[in-house]
């Protein structure tokens, strides 16, 4: 299969470790463990080593991909994050299908909304006069359906045929949170992700946004041909928007904003 598409890498050069240190060893053990476990699950977090060389990490794959694609993505991301952030104690990497993150400070169960990235289509959305409201209504419903008890926790996907006077189209949408969040924090994260994607780029026909703790995606298909299934969707455009101003509350651990 084709290589996963890289979206962005965030390194934190303000906090480094020395080469061949115990921290480096622990980080490499963590990333190797993720490469192995990603063939079985879509999410994992781990803590490796003792203070002051403890490394905390996680990976999260999109719930709409299979374990083979998840594993390919995490393995690629693990290699790239260690290569691109060689001596950095904190780093986060986004690919189209997954994210991988590590830090010297625990971030488990905490809401992190930055750094975030958005990838969107250069094609305008159908029925543009009504699209924002249609999209808002759809994600309001999806966020309410999020549950920790689903097969892939905090993952909801939907395919709806939208029929309006201006024309009909299929809307494929998904939301997902990192399973270490509680339900209320997951909801906050997804609402921010929707705000991010709905105000950054005009009215694109497709968009994908990642934050460190949640993912939101939608695609539209005008009904000039049979509608595709979610698993057969083509890759999204690599265009990225400028950063969105953050809400007053900022996360405790963050990389320099750059989208």
From TrEMBL:
Domain of life from the UniProt record: Eukaryota
UniProt cross-references to PANTHER family, sorted A to Z: CYSTEINE-RICH REPEAT SECRETORY PROTEIN (PTHR32099), CYSTEINE-RICH REPEAT SECRETORY PROTEIN 4-RELATED (PTHR32099:SF41)
Region feature (Disordered): 226-259
Gnk2-homologous domain segment(s): 5-107, 113-223
One Pfam family here: Stress-antifung
Family matches, as InterPro entries: GNK2 (IPR002902)
PROSITE patterns given in the database record: GNK2 (PS51473)
Keywords: Repeat, Signal
Organism expressing this protein natively: Arabidopsis thaliana x Arabidopsis arenosa
Full protein name: Gnk2-homologous domain
Comp. bias intervals (Pro residues): 227-259
């Amino acid at each position: 299969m084709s290589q996963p598409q890289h979206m962005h890498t965030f390194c934190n050069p303000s906090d480094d470790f020395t080469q061949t240190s115990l921290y480096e060893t622990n980080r490499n053990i963590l990333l190797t463990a993720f490469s192995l476990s990603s063939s079985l699950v879509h999410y994992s977090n781990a803590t490796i080593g003792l203070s002051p060389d403890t490394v905390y990490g996680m990976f999260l794959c999109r719930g709409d991909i299979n374990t083979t694609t998840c594993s390919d993505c995490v393995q690629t991301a693990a290699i790239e994050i260690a290569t691109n952030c060689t001596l950095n104690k904190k780093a986060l990497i986004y690919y189209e299908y997954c994210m991988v993150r590590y830090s010297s400070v625990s971030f488990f169960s905490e809401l992190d909304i930055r750094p975030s990235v958005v990838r969107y289509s250069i094609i305008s959305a159908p029925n543009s006069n009504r699209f924002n409201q249609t999209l808002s209504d759809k994600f309001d419903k999806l966020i309410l359906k999020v549950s920790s008890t689903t097969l892939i926790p905090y993952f909801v996907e939907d395919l709806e045929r939208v029929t309006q006077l201006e024309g009909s189209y299929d809307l494929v949408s998904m939301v997902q949170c990192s399973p270490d969040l509680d339900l209320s924090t997951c909801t906050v994260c997804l609402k921010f992700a929707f705000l991010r994607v709905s105000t950054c780029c005009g009215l694109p026909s497709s968009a994908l946004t990642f934050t460190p703790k949640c993912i939101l995606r939608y695609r539209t298909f005008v009904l000039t041909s049979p509608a595709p299934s979610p698993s057969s969707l083509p890759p999204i455009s690599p265009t990225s928007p400028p950063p969105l101003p953050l809400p007053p509350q900022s996360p405790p651990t963050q990389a320099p904003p750059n989208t």
